[in-house]
Design goal:
Radius of gyration: 24 Å
Oligomer: single chain
Number of strands: 25
Number of helices: 14
Largest sheet: 6 strands, mixed
Distance between the termini: 58 Å
Shape: globular
Helix content: 10-25%
């Protein structure tokens, strides 16, 4: 079975490579030209998704017909079951068996914003799983900093500094000390403020055959804007291009390294054309092909690729959760989507004389669920699933239909930036803080990045009935453990913070907050302030708020501290801390069951 699987995976890796990528991927390790052929297997943005049903599918390209009464009425994206750590391990090990010169690498966000089965145990299950599949090295992502640099160090080294190897809060889960990761985290551009000391090694050099390959790992410079400020206090995140280029010069001159691979937590996305009409034949570019690079959009990623030293051959990217295989500024740029649903199979040809990379090709392999589950990885998942089951499988409420987030497709977010799952969370926040004892809030706002998933009517994760929502499913929606904070803001500050949604995190982009049901406002793409003056109301659109009056507003502590660039909230006054956001969300689901998805009419785009 293993031989058949390996052959099948190798065969599939030869097919349908994107424009600019070579179709023949050398696998003969006894090459006639004596060049070294190195295989890199790359993952990114796993986020602790160890179970095969979170989310359990990926959309892979064009096109399936939609039929009604024997007549084609349209086309839809092809979707296949995929993901799960035990399946991912099987695919990686089968691919690894095709080339003894194989290294397995990551590009950050392996942990953080994780489902309950990993997060309940401080992401130790995910680190154990990465050790099991043989991960060699990974760059850090923004979510590696969710709980601060000390916890990141614990992920790397275990609790080995005078401790017993157990988590300081709740000890060992099963009596076995946590030893940390056997792979190396890299953080080339993250320094202790005021020093030239990085918090983790900036690079790792591996020798394969007679060639040296340097892996440089780093996160994007703007990481502090998307992490709770207290978690990155005392750290400095330096520019990506200058950091990498300095290291390339250093490694070339001091260690003779000629081959460079960057593990970068930054990315972009394809922008395929609109779906074809029912009467037309698809071109094949409609929808997102996991091996495509159609209308690539990612200004930061493109700028970085153009600025990096030409001796950098491969950029394994991340952060946007999108699949692509591109050539940008002469460099191979890849991403394996998210949640362990793909693994990028990269082949490097390293010249036996110059020791430089002369060719680099790649394809994203789908982590299908039609292969045997790897026993070691499955044992890790089963262990923590059983430990978490009493809490995870508790039903906290029910829904009448899917309540989707922007991370779900299709239907997760409308043209105004509103998403139903975020609306529901904001409603729960307001209900928890309306009483005078809990803040007297009159409006709630939820950051879009904190909404990690939707609730699906037919998802069954713990033996519950269709429509029932388990605690684990609610946790997956809102996993950060933030607390609710009520602050007093003037009407002018409300307008100011709503305008901070635009050109955020960069010019021409937006992060749209999700408001509670009583909030209504309009925004436009016209120059100047985007929020239409006089359109903001806290009574559903009847009476505009007064810019000179004060209002009690509830947000989470991440936003209250200026997270996601909402710095206006830091100047609002009279903060009152409240309960954990997940507790408020779960209680709201129970009180309003069966909950019907709200109508997305709180935010209105008018031009």
């Amino acid at each position: 079975m293993k031989t058949f699987l390996a052959v099948a995976l190798v065969f599939s890796s030869l097919l349908a490579l994107p424009g600019g990528a070579a179709a023949d991927k050398p696998r003969d390790t006894k090459s006639r030209d004596k060049d070294t052929h190195v295989q890199l297997l790359a993952i990114n943005d796993l986020h602790g998704h160890l179970a095969p049903n979170t989310p359990g599918t990926i959309q892979v390209g064009c096109c399936n017909p939609v039929m009604s009464g024997g007549v084609r009425t349209g086309w839809t994206q092809k979707t296949v079951p995929t993901g799960g750590i035990a399946y991912l391990a099987t695919h990686i090990k089968a691919l690894r068996a095709t080339n003894p010169n194989t290294l397995t690498v990551g590009a950050g966000d392996l942990i953080g914003a994780s489902p309950l089965v990993s997060a309940l145990f401080h992401d130790e299950p995910t680190i154990e799983a990465m050790n099991s599949i043989g991960l060699d090295v990974s760059g850090v992502g923004n979510h590696e900093f969710d709980e601060g640099v000390d916890e990141l160090h614990r992920m790397q080294y275990g609790n080995q500094h005078g401790g017993d190897g157990c988590h300081p809060i709740d000890g060992c889960q099963d009596g076995t000390p946590f030893a940390g990761s056997t792979f190396q985290y890299l953080a080339a551009n993250v320094f202790y403020a005021g020093t030239n000391t990085t918090i983790l090694p900036p690079y790792e050099v591996r020798t394969v055959g007679n060639a040296k390959i340097a892996f440089i790992g780093l996160t994007f410079e703007g990481t502090p804007t998307v992490v709770t400020p207290s978690a990155v206090a005392g750290l400095e995140f330096r520019p990506e291009v200058a950091t990498v280029n300095t290291l390339v010069d250093k490694l070339r001159s001091q260690q003779g390294v000629k081959a460079f691979v960057v593990l970068l937590h930054q990315g972009g996305a394809q922008r395929p054309p609109a779906p074809p009409a029912a009467s037309t034949t698809p071109t094949g570019n409609e929808y997102t092909d996991v091996n495509g690079c159609v209308n690539f959009n990612g200004p930061e990623m493109q700028s970085i690729a153009q600025g990096l030293d030409r001796r950098v051959s491969v950029i394994i990217s991340a952060h946007t959760h999108q699949p692509y295989v591109c050539t940008i500024a002469g460099k191979l740029v890849t991403s394996a989507a998210s949640f362990g649903r793909l693994v990028t199979d990269i082949d490097l040809t390293i010249d036996h004389e110059s020791k430089a990379v002369t060719a680099a090709t790649a394809s994203n392999q789908i982590v299908t669920q039609d292969v045997p589950q790897d026993p070691a990885a499955k044992a890790i998942l089963d262990k923590y699933t059983n430990l978490s089951a009493p809490l995870a499988n508790r039903v906290v409420g029910s829904i009448t239909a899917d309540i989707r987030s922007a991370r779900d497709n299709p239907g997760g977010q409308n043209a105004a930036g509103e998403q139903l799952m975020g609306d529901v969370i904001a409603d729960a926040m307001l209900e928890a803080t309306t009483p005078s004892d809990f803040g007297s809030a009159v409006a709630a706002f939820m950051n879009s990045g904190g909404v990690r998933s939707g609730l699906l009517y037919n998802q069954i994760s713990g033996g519950e009935q269709p429509g029932e929502v388990t605690y684990a499913e609610a946790f997956t929606v809102q996993p950060f453990g933030n607390t609710l904070v009520v602050k007093t803001c003037t009407g002018q500050q409300i307008y100011d913070v709503l305008n901070q949604q635009f050109n955020n995190p960069s010019a021409g982009s937006s992060r749209i907050m999700l408001p509670s049901g009583n909030v209504h406002y309009q925004w436009t793409t016209a120059d100047g302030p985007h929020v239409v003056d006089g359109s903001v109301s806290f009574d559903g659109g009847t009476t505009p708020i007064d810019k000179t009056s004060s209002y009690r507003v509830v947000v989470n502590n991440f936003m209250a501290d200026g997270g996601d660039g909402y710095m206006v909230f830091t100047s609002c006054t009279e903060p009152l801390g409240g309960e954990v956001d997940l507790d408020a969300f779960a209680r709201y689901l129970g009180a309003h069951s069966p909950l019907t998805p709200p109508t997305p009419n709180r935010i209105e785009k008018v031009g």
